[in-house]
Amino acid sequence: MSSTFGTWFRVTTFGESHGGGVGCVVDGCPPRLPLSEADIQPQLDRRRPGQSDLATPRNEADRVTILSGVEHGLTLGTPIGLLVANRDTRPADYGAMRAAPRPSHADFTYLAKYGIHASSGGGRSSARETVGRVAAGAIAELWLRRRFGVEIVAWVAAIGEVAAPEPEVETLTRAQVDAHPTRCPDAAAAEAMAAAVRAARDARDSIGGVVACVCRGVPAGWGEPVFEKLEARLAQAMLSIPATKGFEIGSGFEGTRRRGSQHNDMFVWKNGRLGTATNRSGGVQGGISNGEPIVLRVAFKPPATIGQPQTTARFDGEPTVIEAGGRHDPCVVPRAVPIVEAMAALVLADAALAQLARDGASPR
Questions:
Q1: What is the rounded distance in angstroms from the CA atom of residue 22 to the CA atom of residue 14?
Q2: Is the entire prediction scored with pTM above 0.90?
Q3: Which ranges constitute the DSSP H helices of the chain?
Q4: Does domain 4-361 sit in CATH 3.60.150.10?
Q5: Digits of tens for pLDDT over the chain (364 positions)?
Q6: Sign of CA dihedral 104, 107, 110, 111
Q7: Ranges assigned E (strand) in 32-94
Q8: Domain residue spans in the chain?
């Protein structure tokens, strides 16, 4: 079940980067949810390649088709099949790479696991696989917004050495995030980030960064201790995204430098409920949501496939030099924003359904 995520709201993705198409099957979506391709397409448009000179020039429209689970504009409660065709495939670009693994890529590990790997692109290890996640996440987010008023907004917090000041997470909008191709809402930092990406691209190199995300309106009580803590599920979800290397929530690693007296979130009465004066916990305490905004950050490494010659070894052990062909992102971080939002939505939808089941089973 390595391609399936979730317990109540379950998503299975399928497809390879240069195959006929990619997509997903969503099982567990509640019935009678108004849904059409128009509800899913905007997030796919934000993820698709070719959006600016900061991304891969691969030209994919990524138009989604609903194959099942929806009738007369309403979900049926049955599995929802979603398909996006691959149109701009170029398997010939990868001919030189079939005999030798790319440094820091999954070519070697997939071969070690399965005894075979996709001969073009990264196959299932490619970020093209995330099309299905984003499509499924759009459905999860739609239900969360309509049922609970949950809002999810991610943004680029850093690229390379350029870090942006934290925005007002209580009011940040996707329109503000999308105002710049880097998807950083701070104008000055966004320009510096763009310059860093272009410098890496022009050097036929790559660069990494950090995506931050806030989930607003999540009620207190979501999350299943002890092994299914909400932050543990979020960490699993985020670290399953290609090219991720780190996850933190709330104060994260910076919080380790403080004492408890400086770090604790004091409880106060606000907006007609018990809440906290600060949010160093990142909206989760004891593995359960506390009603404050959930704030998390995900670290993305520089993309492994670069245009510079690199030393490696052939699969038969002979030393060689590889110079990657194909079309690749010099930085995946701007396009990762909707992927992070999607994975957050999938986790929260699963947690919400688990809590609804628990509430429904409780004695009245």
A1: 6
A2: yes
A3: 37-47, 107-114, 130-148, 174-177, 187-202, 230-239, 260-263, 333-361
A4: yes
A5: 589 999 999 999 999 887 889 999 999 999 999 999 999 999 999 998 877 778 777 667 899 999 999 999 999 999 999 999 988 656 555 666 678 888 988 888 988 898 887 766 678 888 899 999 999 999 999 999 999 999 999 999 999 999 999 999 999 999 999 999 999 999 999 999 999 999 999 999 999 999 999 999 999 999 999 999 999 999 999 999 999 999 999 999 999 999 999 999 999 999 899 999 999 999 999 999 999 999 999 999 999 989 899 999 998 899 999 887 666 889 999 999 999 999 999 999 999 999 999 998 878 6
A6: negative
A7: 64-66, 70-71, 74-75, 80-85
A8: 4-361
Task: List CB contacts of 190: < 8 A, sequence separation 6 or more.
Answer: 156, 164, 180, 182, 184
Per the listing, tokens 């690693």 go with 253
Length of the chain: 364
Q: Which two tokens stand for residue 282?
A: 């990142």
